[in-house]
Design goal:
CATH architecture of the largest domain: 2-Layer Sandwich
Structural class: alpha/beta
Distance between the termini: 15 Å
Strand content: 15-25%
Number of helices: 12
Strand order of the largest sheet: 2-1-3-4-5-6
Order of helices and strands: EHEHEHEEHEHHEHEEEEEHEHEHHHEEE
Number of domains: 3
Number of strands: 17
Length: 339
């Protein structure tokens, strides 16, 4: 985590030095304060201010974008009595960092988010802890609001829970039916009227890909979107595209990975030949590449021999296959002893 510290008084500077020693990060000079804050607001994961909160609020107000984009912002008084989580408490990690800072300098952490105050599970924090992508952030307020109002929500997760989670308001189920739901899955579902569903996407899909040389990037992307839609797979769960050595510089594949931030994994030819798994073979692919299969074999091997979701799916000049790799069990609550 990249942390920047700001100060206004000599006593405040001394406190930032203590914090830097305990937490790491960089201490910014006092000169050009607004300009430096503006830069670090874009570049850093967390900004820690040792000064009056009013100064901080006025300085960062024009920079605030949204809770899924803003960095963590923490404010301390120069005596180090209080550490206050000001902005991006869950997704930005400000609440967790505030507790760590408070523990490091023996300060009183001040957390004001309603779910933390009431001891209610916060699903944006669950997403951050487990590297889940929130698909529809606008639904979070309905889920949190329901829990704060004492309403029951249904929770479905395709990933196991690390430990059984017991809460009277959260019903862990394979078949969610409540009007408030949280679904942790790489699968897409049709919308339902009068239902608030928060979708959290695990990054567990590996897509094997093969295509003809010089495939047009726009064509490849259209085929890719159709493949996901047909098989009800969320793009947000795709972590890796996998292909063979001879396709590692294919412009269309590189363009698709760059556009969506996918990792490109190249599977060695010998790994496919020696895999021992039965794939649908293609005489044409064998003739061109010397391999029995490309997309299906690459998705399987790149997912560490995960669960095959599709076989080889053909489009004009393009093939895809999807596998789901195993992920660790979900953690629904941070370990307070680690703070």
């Amino acid at each position: 985590m990249k942390i920047a510290y700001f100060w206004m008084t000599q006593k405040g500077h001394e406190l930032t030095c203590r914090l830097q020693k305990a937490m790491g990060g960089i201490i910014e000079p006092k000169a050009e304060f607004p300009k430096t804050v503006q830069r670090d607001f874009q570049d850093c994961d967390a900004l820690v201010f040792v000064m009056a909160m009013g100064i901080v609020v006025r300085t960062i107000a024009p920079l605030i974008r949204s809770k899924d984009k803003d960095p963590a912002v923490i404010v301390l008084d120069q005596n180090g009595t209080f550490a206050i989580s000001l902005l991006s408490g869950h997704l930005g990690g400000a609440n967790y960092l505030t507790k760590r800072i408070a523990a490091a300098i023996q300060a009183q952490p001040v957390i004001t988010t309603a779910t933390d105050v009431q001891g209610v599970l916060s699903f944006d924090e669950v997403a951050k802890q487990n590297d889940l992508c929130i698909e529809n952030l606008e639904e979070l307020k309905y889920i949190s609001g329901a829990l704060l109002d004492g309403k029951t929500i249904d929770l479905y997760s395709e990933l196991p829970l690390q430990t059984p989670y017991f809460c009277a308001l959260i019903n862990v189920t394979e078949t969610p039916t409540a009007p408030y739901r949280v679904v942790i899955s790489s699968n897409t579902y049709p919308p339902e009227e009068d239902v608030h569903t928060l979708f959290l996407r695990p990054k567990n899909l590996v897509i094997g890909i093969g295509c003809k040389r010089d495939t047009i990037p726009e064509h490849l992307e259209i085929c890719f979107q159709e493949f996901l839609q047909t098989h009800h797979l969320s793009r947000l769960s795709v972590t890796t595209m996998a292909t063979i050595q001879r396709k590692k510089r294919e412009p269309a594949i590189l363009a698709l990975c760059e556009k969506y931030g996918f990792q490109l994994e190249i599977i060695p030819d010998d790994a496919i030949r020696n895999c021992g798994h039965i794939f649908e073979e293609s005489a044409f692919v064998q003739q061109i590449t010397g391999l029995p299969a490309v997309a299906e074999a690459c998705s399987y091997l790149a997912s560490d021999c995960g669960d095959a979701l599709t076989g080889k799916v053909r489009y004009p000049g393009v093939t895809f296959a999807a596998c789901k790799k195993s992920l660790p069990a979900l953690v629904l609550k941070e370990d307070e002893e680690d703070v």
